[in-house]
Design brief:
With about 100 residues, this protein is an all-beta fold. It has no helices and 6 strands. It has strands at about 1-10, 15-30, 35-50, 50-65, 70-80, 80-95. Strand 3 (about 35-50) and strand 4 (about 50-65) form a beta hairpin. The chain is elongated and about 55 Å long. The two termini are about 25 Å apart.
Length: about 100
């Protein structure tokens, strides 16, 4: 299943800033295989003024195996087209009777 959620451009005239973005949600699972489940979300946000243009993108991915739950996350930021920040995490949490 895939769902795209656009966020229309909104202008805050008092501060001269325009906001926009979108998110994409994806969920999948194969029948009879609970550990095949995969959930992902990707968010993009943009803020613009006359003299700057900032964009962020973040992702989350949830999955599991027989022994672990896994969470992969990332975030990145751009000033115009120049990437100014990026970080990612990949965390496994041992399943305890779950």
């Amino acid at each position: 299943m895939r769902k795209e959620v656009p966020e229309p451009e909104t202008q805050l005239a008092d501060i001269g800033t325009t906001f926009s973005g979108n998110s994409v949600w994806t969920r999948s699972i194969r029948e009879g295989e609970p550990n095949s489940s995969l959930w992902t979300v990707e968010w993009t946000r943009q803020m613009k003024r006359t003299n700057w243009n900032i964009r962020t993108q973040s992702t989350v991915e949830l999955s599991s195996s027989a022994d672990y739950f896994r969470i992969k996350e990332s975030i990145a930021a751009w000033d115009d087209e120049k990437e100014i920040f990026r970080r990612a995490w990949d965390t496994q949490i041992k399943r305890d009777l779950l």
